[in-house]
Amino acid sequence: MNLNDVPENFPRITIPAVVTGVQPKIGVRGIDGRYVVGQTEEERYERWDICEDLAQQLLQVAQKDETGHPGQAREKTLRRLRISVSQKGWCSEDELDWLIGRLAALLQG
After folding, report:
1. Can you tell me the mean pLDDT for 25-45?
2. Domain limits of the chain?
3. In the 3-class helix/strand/coil scheme, how is the chain assigned residue by residue?
4. In angstroms, how far is the first alpha carbon of the chain from the final one?
5. Average pLDDT, stretch 31-47?
6. Residue 11: C-alpha distances to residues 32, 68, 76, 91, 92 (Å)
7. How confident is the model at residue 74 (pLDDT cuts 50, 70, 90)?
8. What is each CA distance from 86 to 28, 55, 78, 82, 103, in whole angstroms?
9. Which of 42, 78, 80, 81 stands the most exposed, by the fewest C-beta atoms within 10 Å?
10. pLDDT confidence of 105, banded at 50, 70, 90?
């Protein structure tokens, strides 16, 4: 695992804290004796790895769709894939934006 493999444009997930009560609170997690706000670099890498793998798998689906519908705009193929992936709940909306952009780049070769 190389944390530097994650592209800069891959989204960072922020974890908003919603904590009730009168006293002020900070939403953090304790990891290895430290307080962490949001996503660790390892968690971000894991999410990127999942999304990159999904983009590679969807590349074949998109290519098959384009072959089956000659003359169809690429945007239509990407829109249909976006809807399908969105319904599965595999990734966040920000990750889905990145995924579709990555897929578009892969399709351009």
Report:
1. 81
2. 3-108
3. CCHHHCCCCCCCCCCCCCCCCCCCCCCCEEECCEEECCCCHHHHHHHHHHHHHHHHHHHHHHHHHHHHCCCCCHHHHHHHHHHHHHHHCCCCHHHHHHHHHHHHHHHHC
4. 26
5. 85
6. 24, 32, 24, 11, 10
7. very high
8. 28, 13, 12, 6, 15
9. 42
10. very high
Crossing angle, helix 41-68 and helix 74-88, to 10 degrees?
130
Average pLDDT estimate for 68-87: 93
The answer to whether 59 and 107 are in contact (CB under 8 A) is yes
The count of other CB atoms within 10 Å of the CB of residue 98 is 21
